[in-house]
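Lab channel / #folding
Pinned by the channel admin:
"Please post every new chain as: sequence first, then the structure tokens as a reply. Keep commentary short and put observations after the output so the thread stays searchable."

First post following the new format, from NK:
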Amino acid sequence: MKIVAFFLLPFLLFFTACGGGSSSEKETSDSTQFLSIAYAPAASNIPIGIEKIVTITFTAAIDRTTVDDASVYIEDASSRHIPAALIISGDRVSVIPTDYFLESSQYTPVVKSSVSDEIGRSLQDDFTFTFTTSTGPDVTAPLQVSLTPASGSSADKATPVIMTFDEVIADNGATIELKEKVSGTTIDGNTSVHDQGLYFLPDAELTYEVEYTATLLGTVMDLADNEYNGTSSWDFTIAPFVDSISPLLSSVTPAEGTSAAKDTNVIIEFDEAIAANTAGLLELKNSDTDTAVPGTTTVTGNTLVFVPGSDLLYDGNYRMSLLGSVTDLAGNEHNATTTSWDFSILPFSDTNAPIFQSVTPADGSIASISTEIIMAFDETIADDGVTLGLKDSDTDTVILGTPIVSGSTLSFAPDDNLTKGGNYTVTLIGTVHDLAGNAYDDSTTSWDFSANTFSVVSAQRDNYSSSPNNVILEFSSALDPLTVGSSDFEVKLGSIPLQNQEMTNFDVSGNIVTFTVQLAIPTSTFYSVIVSGSIKDVDGISHNNGVADTYRFSDYTD
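Reply from TO:
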């Protein structure tokens, strides 16, 4: 007699055994309370070969003492027990008839509820199912009827790999191996048997435009152990990427109904890259005035950005509209209904501290004795008691005056003119705040300067290659013309006064005095001019503090 193993388990379905149960019933009770059976009945009512044995697989290892010919057996159509041997192996019980089944006959395997597993759980009810036998032994090998993807074809990247046969095949360990044809890289995945098909499901999608080779490993058999001997390997290719999906709107910034900073850019983000030459435009309007806001639209990757030409208005309301067509790189058009949304600009909120700009007089400089002291910032400052203090550094004397806060400047006007030649220090007293209360915290809080002295800066003669000779004197500040006359000057050759000198063309202009000496001045020697102390500048300060002084000419040779 021919005995061939037959496992009725191609799908490994689990359900609770019950009297007269069918293959479509599912376990409804608590699976931890009862032993269950995993089995697959004769698929699609296909007759079973008369030479078969029946193997019943449980969900746990079976207690051998609970299995005998009274608890597990096969009945014929007349409810007679078929003589058979029982083999118990772990979670399986095989019923091996002592002779072939009758042709074209109906049989019913029975498992009684007394069967239990090794921890004492029994079936909730008796379990039965029915099958029909064929007219004789199955001696025909399974034939392959299709390959998926077909040999030489182009497939989708998510395709399963399937070998389909003309009859139900056994789950006997045969697998499909999938490799990249060029690189030889093996693709991870799982092989399973379903009725007439051997399936390979890759763990991840395959790669566009890559060629693959599928190879059958092991031997495919039908339920009668007839071996398949046909095609065992074939190639196919994954099709190139074809994008037919429209780009979807992912987000907008600022979002609908939100408030944003006045320097915000408006951004529309899609779920994929969009065409750089898209016809889509963004229009931004001030909703309060219904006027368009000038700006520039750019495309970067998957974003469409509108950059306003200038900051938006505090507390303003705006509407952004998407005009025209936005397409992805494959030309698919965005067709969602969201084409406009509203947002507002936050009210003014200054959080920036005032920034120092300049001081007058500059640090280390020489200034007029009537100078005003000024410290300038980049924004309007608060008149909250902050002031500038001024000291004479030579005498450590505080200089009295009036502090003034005006716009972005803090100034100090001394009550009297400063002392020419004096040295002074300015100090910031208190803390400078802007109108929002932000405090100035820079390190510039004091600086030094000097006051001008009133003296001759330079003395020189002009047109000294001939006679008459012009003398030019430059003073350190503008002169009071009423205090200047020809008698205030005397030209000397070395230390000897020139005799019978006469001054003509006498002129006072600003801080410059010019005159002509009629008596020729010898060349190739030095000479000097004596300036009286009675000359005063426009501030009323006497030359050299009221004392005459002598200045050597800066040019005394041809």
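NK: Residues 1-31, 40-44 have pLDDT under 50 and may be disordered.
TO: also worth noting, The first strand starts at residue 14 and ends at 15.
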